[in-house]
Batch of 4 targets.
Target 1
Amino acid sequence: MNPGVAMGFQETFKALSDPVRRDILVMLKKGKKSAGEIGEKFDMTGATISYHLSILKKADLVKESRFKNFVYYDLNTSIFEEIMLWFGQFEKEHNKGEEENGK
């Protein structure tokens, strides 16, 4: 695996380690949301929401777009596909071992 990808995963897993950020990602699964819409779902300051969004952006899990005076956040699905492929390599190895052992 290329070292750049491994370094990216380090940021990804750090971002995913926080339950608030995981909740934000689940919210974004339904489509783009503004920071204000995201903030309405949590009992925390706008600055705290911005901090969580910046961690998610740094990990490339979300992307932002601007429309008029609003910034919208959306999932970066290509990163999730990359993560699933990476995790998938372990399943394949596991199944391969079972086949070789006659299971």
Target 2
Amino acid sequence: MLGHALGVAGISFSDFCILTPGEFAQVCRRHREHEEELERARWERMRLLAAITVQPHCKKKITPEKLLPLPWDKGRGREKEKMKILKESSRERMMEVARRSATRRTDHDQ
């Protein structure tokens, strides 16, 4: 654990000594997530460059996702759908609040 903390995660020895096991686990989890984000960003840049390079030689438009599908692309469609639903439900909630507010103003004015 000490080797990972000092060598990989970049934690100082004094900071490592005051961490609880749970805190150290959180540091390790976040460090792993950060490394995964960096790796994904590298792959995204690579496939964008590949799509830009190949596009002049293709008759149809090609997207980076179609040229080189990556494992995390599958979740994107679901994320977009969730955002659409959230946006629609937010709009509905705002309309309800506006309707209630208007009703309160008219009730209060009378």
Target 3
Amino acid sequence: MRTRTLLALATTATALALTAAAPASADGTAVLTTGGPGGTAVAVGDTLTAPLASGTSATLYSSATGTSGVVCTSSQFTASVTGNPDAPGTATESVTGHSFNSSSCSSNVTGVLGVSGITVDNLPYTASVASDGTLTVLPAAGSTIQTTVKLRTLLGSITCVYQAPSLNGKADNADSSIAFTNQQFTKVSGSSLCFANGYFTAKYAPVSDNGAAVSVN
């Protein structure tokens, strides 16, 4: 009888140890899912895309409260998922593309006739998305987030280069969106027609994985 009891205890202990060692993702909900909150986990390696939210614009204004600068009505980002742990947690992505359609861009800066192009430099960036929706974008080590704006002016073409150490945004499951508000860039080169600071605001939605809207858990 004692031998059976000891064997039973040993078996139970082994089963508990195996259960503890099992990955939580077997039954948990991942930070990023499709099919709504608590849905199917987004696979590592999947590509996420998002255009500007319908009816909105991406703006780079010269001040946080002003309306002078550059406005674009067509923009999109692309990111590859590099980590998607169980919630609560933080998913990670590699931002491989962030484009602006220059034909959709205009400027109301005095002396500027139009926008020739906007380029996001130094890609890829690293993005992290926490379960509370907090989004952080960082450049590679030793690099910086950089945007180059080319403008047509009365004096010819000029190039304005802006940099930021990081970007902070917010994800919202209501419309599968991510939003950036007044993210400050500083001019590092360009003529006097280039404003000294650029404040970036944009809302991208829906964030999708192969056409399926992405939620944050």
Target 4
Amino acid sequence: MGEAQSALFPNYARYPFTFVKGEGSRLWDENGKEYLDLMCGLAVTNLGHAPKRVTERLKEQADTLWHTSNLFHIPGQEKLAELLVANSCADAVFFCNSGAEANEAAIKIARRYFSKVLEQPERYEIITFDMSFHGRTLATLTATGQEKVKEGFAPLPAGFVYAPYNDAAAVEKLISPRTCAVMLELVQGEGGVNPAEPGFVKTVAELCERHGLLLILDEIQTGVGRTGKMFAYEHYGIEPDLFTLAKGLGSGMPIGAMLGKEKLRGAFIAGSHGTTFGGNYLSTAAGVATMETMLEEDVPAKAAAMSDYIFSELKTKLAGNPLVGEIRGLGMLIGIGLTVPNTELIKSIHEQGVLVVPAGPNVIRLAPSLLISKEEIDRGLETICQTLAKAAAAAV
């Protein structure tokens, strides 16, 4: 008889590991083997696995109350929203369960703002970018600039057009009487760890201002300290009208957030949008503890310093390796561009007890904990660089 079929749908190509314990930047599998985690569950466990303050706050909340729904006031929502507003350019927050839902909310509020507040319903179109990734709902996968995620899901919602990334002139050409917003990742994570150029971002922000468009920043992967600042937009000297968070906000508890300017409040009145589970007692307890740790320990600054060290080490150790192209990224979101496919190289790195993740077919993505130690980074980089050196030697 063959192996029993899983009761799960086969929509994930999973790595052959089952982890049972995590602490800091380390994971252990069911056989007791230890792994160094340089992917953080896709840039989620920014404080490492099971951070103490978050764990304690979750235990305390779990013993008290889990869920009542958004028909009632939830104190943790108010506290987390106040922390986010006090430390960003936003004035109001909507909580949900994931990054896709946060981006969906941003799309909806942008359209509703023009339709109901400005009374310009003809303006509903959003400009996004080639190789972007905004989620898996029908609206967010349509906003995504990658055809592979759309296959088989037609008909897709209308109202999205796509510009080449880092091409402000192309954005300007796409602006029409239908345009309501531009939606942008400041680092395209899934698209290959591609950072936005400062001049491009500045020009796009100016175009939005000139044409009365909303600037929406997808900070699902870059937010909450990942880039060496609390939010990536701080690197660029701009303020978005809307930005979205998820991955790092709950240290692994499912939570998403859409943050916006005061003028947008009137677009999300009672009954216009909602969620049953979003921002419940457990997720906001994790979010508050995460943000408090970020602020009190100045975690973004620590991430910035470690990022400088990682970039320096990678550029030194990988210099001259013919398999390595550009090393790029921002903060602790780093891509090693390759001249060959990444699949077998990542498999080899995993077998040596270091976890990394692809970003497209030719990039190795590193997204370690923002509190990872220098010793742990040295161990991980040594494994990666030796693997690439051996592969280059074998290819000669």
